[in-house]
Design a protein that fits this description.
CATH superfamily: Endonuclease/exonuclease/phosphatase
Helix content: 25-40%
Number of strands: 8
Radius of gyration: 17 Å
CATH class: Alpha Beta
Number of helices: 7
Shape: globular
Strand content: 15-25%
Structural class: alpha/beta
CATH architecture: 4-Layer Sandwich
Largest sheet: 4 strands, mixed
Number of domains: 1
Length: 215
């Protein structure tokens, strides 16, 4: 859920100052051996990965994804830049038995540098609340969940291409902004995960804080 005064256009087009992550260890930050505490009631963990294609080393990558989801008790896991069709993602997702996957169409146009492909893995107990999902493009997926008390949650998974493909980047940004405004109009709480190819260190804390009380 985001603030009603949140400026979506400013958020995706004008990133904050970059976060210095030179001294961070990926192994320590993502796969720490410290056991996580149980999630508070009526809360969830949401994560996002740029998988950089699943055609190569797909089984290894899926296994690592499964381990991370389990270790961190991930409720919603966005995976972007898969380069796979929905049927291919569905086949691979069988190795994550505790999750249900929803995937976008794949862009097979000859003029694009990356075919895209985004997916959302939802823990099975939450997947039962899915009402519908929409592949808005190869780089933008939305999944609607309905909960008791007329609570509606729409989760977006987005992959915004790097600045080397400015035209496709702008197209994806405009589509995301339009989708966010439509979600607000329809009264959905909403959360966004994915790869913006932007530095979001100043805005992400407020997003995570707001999504923690969506339910």
């Amino acid at each position: 859920m985001t603030d009603n005064n949140f400026n979506y256009d400013s958020f995706v087009r004008n990133p904050p100052n970059p976060l210095d992550i030179d001294n961070l260890s990926l192994q320590d930050s993502l796969f720490s051996s410290t056991s996580p505490t149980s999630l508070p009631r009526n809360s969830f963990n949401i994560s996002s990965f740029n998988i950089n294609g699943l055609k190569m080393f797909s089984h290894n990558k899926i296994e690592l994804l499964n381990n991370f989801f389990s270790l961190k008790q991930v409720s919603f896991g966005g995976v972007v830049d898969t380069h796979l069709h929905p049927k291919q993602m569905h086949f691979l997702s069988k190795r994550l038995s505790n999750y249900t996957v929803f995937s976008s169409v794949l862009d097979t146009s000859q003029h694009v540098r990356s075919s895209g492909g985004v997916s959302l893995f939802i823990e099975n107990s939450l997947a039962s609340h899915v009402h519908t999902y929409s592949s808005l493009s190869s780089r933008l997926l939305s999944v609607d969940l309905y909960f008791k008390g007329h609570v509606k949650l729409r989760i977006f998974v987005v992959y915004i291409p790097p600045t080397s493909d400015q035209s496709l980047r702008d197209e994806t940004i405009d589509l995301l902004i339009s989708a966010l405004l439509e979600a607000k109009r329809l009264g959905f709480h909403h959360a966004i995960c994915g790869d913006f190819n932007l530095h979001l260190d100043q805005i992400l804390p407020s997003i995570f804080q707001s999504t923690s009380d969506c339910l």
